[in-house]
Amino acid sequence: MPLVTTTEMFKKAYEGGYAIGAFNVNNMEIVQGITEAARDLNAPLILQVSKGARAYANHTYLVKLVEAAAIECPNIPIALHLDHGPDFETCKSCIDGGFTSVMIDLSSKSFEENIEGTKKVVEYAHDHGVVVEAELGTLAGVEDDVKVSAEDSSYTRPEEVEEFVAKTGCDSLAIAIGTSHGAYKFTADQCTRNEKGILVPPPLRFDVLEEVSKRLPGFPIVLHGSSSVPQDYVKMINDNGGKMPDAVGIPEEQLRKAASLSVCKINIDSDLRLAMTGTIRQFFNEHPDKFDPREYLKPARANIKELVKHKITDVLGCDGKA
Ligand code: G3H
Ligand code: 13P
Ligand code: ZN
Questions:
Q1: What pLDDT is stored for residue 153 in this prediction?
Q2: Which residues form the catalytic set?
C-alpha cells in the first residue's frame, strides 16, 4: 500500500492501549532491519528522518528507500515522518517531497512563537494531506547539532496544552516527562545504582502525562528520547574496543506503561545505533581479515531486526495491529 499518514494508526493505538514505534532511518540496512521486523509481526510503523539524516543520505535516497520498503511490505501501514523539523522551509520541503507526516519542533522558542510557527506549518501541511506533530516542553540530551543540558530541560506544563493544540491545530503533541535524547540520558548523580552497579534513572513523570491526557482526551501524545540503551549492546561495544561508560536509558516497563495510556508514538533511534555499532565492532574484532561491507552489515541488519521485533512485542504492544 502507499505511504499513509498517522491519523488512523494513532486512533487505533489510542483505543487499543498500545503505541506505534517511530524509528529513525539513515541508510538501506536500517530501513530493511526495521521494516522486516514490522512485516514479520504485522505491525504498523513510522519511519522517521531527521535534518541530519537528510544531510547525510539525501532526501531523495531516503524517500525512495522508504517507498521501496512499502512495496516490499504491502500489508503493513508505513508513515514517513520528518523528525525535529527546525523551520517552515524544511517542513515544506518534506511535505512537497513525499513525506506523510512532519514534526515542527519550536519547543525551544517562547510559547507564543511556538504557536505561531506551528500554526503556519499545520496550515500548509493540512492543505497537502500531511499531518503535524508539535512539541511543548524541552528534553535534555543531544538531537542533531543541538545539546540541551539537564538544567535547561523542562517538563511540559499541562496548563498550556489545551490552548496550544486549539490554536495550532496540530495532530499530535510531543511532551517532556523525563525522557532524554541520546545514549547518555542521565548523569550519575541523577541516578541511583542497582546491585550490579548499573545506573537506575529517575522515574518518568506519569503525573504530568496523566494531567495532559485529562486536558486533551483522545489526543495522541508522543514520547521522544525513548531508547532504553540495552546494556548487552553497551557491553558488546565496550568489550570490542569501544568506550561508553555509564550509558543509560529509559526502563522498558515505563515505556510499556506510557504506551498503554495516551502515548501513541514512541521514538527510538539510539538503541538501533548501539545494536549496529556493537555488532560491527564485534565482527571486526573476531574477523580482522574481512573487508567486504556486506559481511559486517548483514549481522548488523539482523540484530536491528531482532531488536525492533522485541520493541514491537514487549514495549510498544503493536504486534498484529496492522
Ligand atoms: O532526536 C534525534 C534523533 O535521534 C535523530 O538524531 O539528528 O543525529 O539524526 P540525528
Ligand atoms: P533516543 O535518542 O532515545 O533514541 O530518541 C530518539 C528520538 O527522540 C528521535 O526523535
Ligand atoms: Zn526526538
A1: 74
A2: 83
Does the pLDDT of residue 41 top 90, yes or no? yes
Model confidence pLDDT, tens digit, residues 54-98: 999 999 999 999 999 999 999 999 999 999 999 999 999 999 999
Q: Is 5 touching ligand 2 by the criterion CB < 6 Å?
A: no
Question: What are the CA-CA distances from residue 272 to residues 19, 96, 126, 282 (Å)?
Answer: 18, 29, 32, 15
Ligand 2 atom with minimal separation from the 271 CA: 4
Q: How many CB atoms lie within 10 A of CB 162?
A: 13
Sign of CA dihedral 166, 162, 90, 67: negative
CA distances from 277 to 188, 240, 248, 266, 280 (A): 24, 10, 16, 22, 5
Nearest CA to ligand 1 atom 8: 144
Alpha helices in 97-205 (DSSP H): 111-127, 161-168
> Which residue's CA lies nearest to atom 4 of ligand 1?
269
Nearest CA to ligand 1 atom 2: 143
Enumerate the β-bridge partners of residue 221. Answer: 173, 263
Q: How far is the CA of 227 from the centre of ligand 2 (A)?
A: 6
Check if 224 has its Cβ closer than 6 Å to any atom of ligand 2.
yes
